[in-house]
Write a structure and sequence with these properties.
By secondary structure, the chain is an alpha/beta fold. 30% of the residues lie in helices and 15% in strands. The chain has one domain. The strands form two sheets. The protein has an eight-stranded mixed β-sheet, sandwiched between helices. The structure holds iron/sulfur cluster. Iron/sulfur cluster (SF4) binds next to helix 1.
């Protein structure tokens, strides 16, 4: 777990599971694997053959979010994939219990295995918790089918992380999607992001009322290319959760954040996405 309390608009990562294995081209330069091998958290490369050893459930970390009283955006398993086949259903159920017990936080779950995540959500997230967002990563057009699986998951908000974006996504269907994040790859082996791929996604998201967030161009470092697209930043947030909460008459994290930021959520979310820099799925 990471709690950068030095940042005024704090937010966090929570890793009750660590370790993963690679499933598609977006995993090639997995930052979570790089960190894990560098610091000795994993002994073996994140190859499927090593998954039994690399994927670890950490019951002792389950209650970490409950210790934070202030509302936070929490990225769940930034160093793993909650829907990895090595993760036990019962353990995911315990994660959901913690999220249910911490309505002050908003939990963001991102996977490259949305078919299993949807199964898990039907079991543990139906009816949907208003403070849990479910997302999937899509790096090229072949993997837009992940979004079809995500759409079947009961969720207050569904999002797509097109990062690292490795090609255009002409097949991407944004129906029932609330938020689209686009970003280029960073690191010494970064693969380039064509501006027209990002523009096309921005224009389609905007036309369909999907919140659009342009995270970064990428490069040798995350900030190397900046994060402006056509002369401005794009920091939109999904409004689905606010809508759900309004229907339920509750007041949650985003409402609080919106009030604190005068109705804009850019600063808080930019901080949150900084944390996604090392995000695996
Ligand atoms: S954490 Fe994500 S990027 Fe890394 S190997 Fe797993 S699915 Fe791929």
């Amino acid at each position: 777990m990471s709690d950068k309390s030095a940042i005024e608009w704090t937010d966090a990562t929570w890793n009750p599971i660590t370790g993963c294995s690679k499933v598609s081209p977006g995993c090639a330069n997995c930052y979570a694997e790089t960190l894990s091998l560098r610091f000795g958290w994993s002994q073996l490369p994140w190859h499927p053959a090593n998954a039994e050893e690399n994927v670890v459930q950490h019951p002792e970390r389950l209650d970490q979010p409950a210790k934070w009283r202030q509302p936070r955006m929490i990225f769940v398993n930034s160093m793993s994939d909650i829907a990895h086949e090595q993760v036990e259903d019962a353990f995911v159920g315990r994660i959901w219990d913690q999220m249910r017990a911490a309505p002050q936080h908003t939990f963001q779950i991102l996977t490259k295995r949305p078919a299993r995540l949807a199964d898990l959500a039907r079991r543990f997230n139906d009816p949907p918790l208003p403070n849990v967002w479910l997302g999937t990563s899509v790096e090229n057009d072949r993997w837009t089918r992940r979004v079809d699986d995500l759409r079947t998951a009961p969720a207050a908000a569904r999002f797509i992380s097109a990062e690292p974006l490795l090609g255009p996504l002409p097949s991407l269907d944004l129906t029932d999607i609330h938020w689209l994040i686009v970003g280029g790859e960073s690191g010494v082996k970064h693969r380039p992001l064509d501006p027209d791929w990002a523009r096309d996604l921005r224009d389609r998201a905007t036309a369909q009322g999907v919140a659009f967030f342009f995270k970064q161009w990428g490069g040798r470092t995350p900030k190397a290319g900046g994060r402006e697209l056509d002369g401005r930043t794009w920091d939109e947030m999904p409004l689905a959760r606010l809508s759900v909460e309004a229907q339920e008459g509750s007041r949650g994290v985003l409402t609080d954040l919106a009030a604190r930021s005068g109705g804009t959520l850019d600063i808080e979310m930019a901080a949150g996405l900084e944390r996604l820099e090392g995000h695996g799925p």
